[in-house]
Amino acid sequence: MRFVTKTVHAWLDYPVALALVALPFLLGLGGSHPLALAISPIVGVAAFLLTVFTDHHLGLVRVLPYKLHLAVDLTVGLLFLVLPLALGFSGLDATYYWLNGAAVVTVIALSTPETEPASA
To answer: Domain map of the chain by residue range?
Structure first.
């Protein structure tokens, strides 16, 4: 059952991107590995830019197809699930990446594949 529409997804993108930038600092990540603090903010900035350039109603430039946006999101979600194992994150660092990865993969799995036209 897919119920996360393109419109709902668009509304989630900006706050999620900002959370990816801010939360690692607010939570004090980096205790098990310095990259645990650095990766999420970098991904957050990239996610913000991806949203700005995505062809949906909240995209400002609208040059990237929504399907590409979903593919990038899925890739990031899967990456977040693997990073703790690959880099040896533990404790809060690992939990943060696993929860974010699981959330992103779940949202993508629940996203509708429709290509609603972006309205100005």
So the answer is: 6-109
What is the structure's pLDDT at 1?
76
Q: What is the pTM of this model?
A: 0.91
Q: What is the pLDDT of residue 3?
A: 86
What spatial distance separates the first Cα and last Cα of the chain, rounded to whole Å?
29
Q: Which residues of 51-62 are buried (b: 16+ CB within 10 A; e: fewer)?
A: bbebbbebbeeb
47-100 pLDDT, tens digit per residue, is 999 999 999 999 999 999 999 999 999 999 999 999 999 999 999 999 999 999
| Selection from 78, 56, 80, 57 nearest residue 67 by Cα | 56
Bridge partners of 54?
Answer: 64
CB 118 within 8 A of CB 57: yes
